Amino acid sequence: MFKKKIKNLKIRHINIFLRVLRKLAYFILDCFGYLVFLPFLLTSKRKKFSKGDIKKILIIRLDRIGDVLLSTPAIRAIRFAFLRCQLHVLVSDYTKDLLINNPHIDRLLVYKKDKLSRDYSLAIALHPGLRQNYLTFISGARFRIGYTGWGGGFFLTHRLKDDRIKRIRHEVESALEAVGMAGGVIQDKHLDISVTQEGERFAVNFFSEYGLQDKDLIVAIHPGARQVYIRWKKEGFAQVAERLIREDNAKVILIGSKEEEALIKEVVSLMKEKPILAVGLKLTEVVSLIKRCNLFIGNSSGPMHIAAALGVPVVAIFGSIHPLDSYKEWGPWGTSQVIVSKDLNCRHCHPSDCKTFDCMRLISSEDVLEAAQKLIYVKNG
């Protein structure tokens, strides 16, 4: 036990050193960049946005599923502020299907696949990073909004400080603050998500294949997450799934990516009652499958945000309360949800240093089952 603590302490110190080194590298890069760009910065006029100045707009969001979905109110806010302007959104190939039918977007661009023109009037990077800030610059936009702190602040004409550690707010609010610098008009804050014909055909066939009907209580469970330290124990998911099948006569669907197939099999191996498996699906298929479920249970992950965007009741399992992973920033955005979390007062500990996963281990299957049955009871009246 003592050796394990020493090992964890060493890992934590290495992680801290690497983070400091990375921040120092960004600082040096920015100092050099500001010197090189000084003539541009001195000649650029920081003036109020005028609709007459804006003809074509680029919004950049290159990260993951949840990040893109939580940015849809910001996209809508820009659309309503600039109704006559062309609005283009640049995303990764992985997330494009979430926005493919979004009515507020004139053109959806895929990073590294679609060529970026240089005739934009306004470019907004909705998340911090050197790459995103650079893309605002090469877009040719006169007005460039983005975040400082993670490199490339010198590419911007209008800067926001990445202060999520100190000023905790939901990612939806952060994105709205960014577009607010351009005069974004907030109509409402619901999430937009695209449902495709391809996905709907798949879901209909899937339900038919497994004999699922509208009258059934259908529960989607996703035991995975991108970071291992925010995953709840597989034994817990197995126990909750089994009890929902036995006590509530639920039809449980375990969902996961191809990379999570081994994890899904481990959960199934711990169960006597066997769930339905949906592994390695396309994103369009995941959307339409979750759309037909009565309840979603999972960690902080893309599928959790998909369920929330679709209005499916969500039981979200959160361990760390550090701002980078807190439910206060990344929780499901909607009304029908229950957050299951344990407070270990670790808000000052960087999540990547948490090698013991105590936050997640303290969450019991009873905690999660109680939250699930609460939402089932509300649904059934």
SSE diagram, text form:
Blueprint: H1 2-36, H2 38-43, E1 56-60, H3 65-69, H4 72-81, E2 86-91, E3 107-110, E4 122-125, H5 130-138, E5 143-148, E6 158-161, H6 171-180, H7 197-209, E7 218-222, H8 234-248, E8 251-256, H9 261-269, E9 276-279, H10 283-291, E10 295-299, H11 302-310, E11 314-318, H12 327-330, E12 337-341, H13 358-361, H14 365-380
Parallel strand pairs: 1-2, 1-4, 2-3, 4-5, 5-6, 7-8, 7-10, 8-9, 10-11, 11-12
Give the structure's gist in a few sentences.
With 381 residues, this protein is α/β, with parallel strands linked by helices. The chain has 14 helices and twelve strands. It has helices at 2-36, 38-43, 65-69, 72-81, 130-138, 171-180, 197-209, 234-248, 261-269, 283-291, 302-310, 327-330, 358-361, 365-380; strands at residues 56-60, 86-91, 107-110, 122-125, 143-148, 158-161, 218-222, 251-256, 276-279, 295-299, 314-318, 337-341.
Helix and strand content put the structural class at alpha/beta
Roughly how much helix do the residues carry, as a percent range?
Answer: 40-55%
Report the total helices: 14
Unreliable runs: 1-5
CATH superfamily of the largest domain: Glycogen Phosphorylase B
Overall residue-averaged pLDDT value: 87
Q: Determine and state the CATH class of the largest domain.
A: Alpha Beta
User: Which topology of the largest domain does CATH recognise?
Assistant: Rossmann fold
The CATH architecture of the largest domain can be named as 3-Layer(aba) Sandwich
- Any idea how many domains? 2
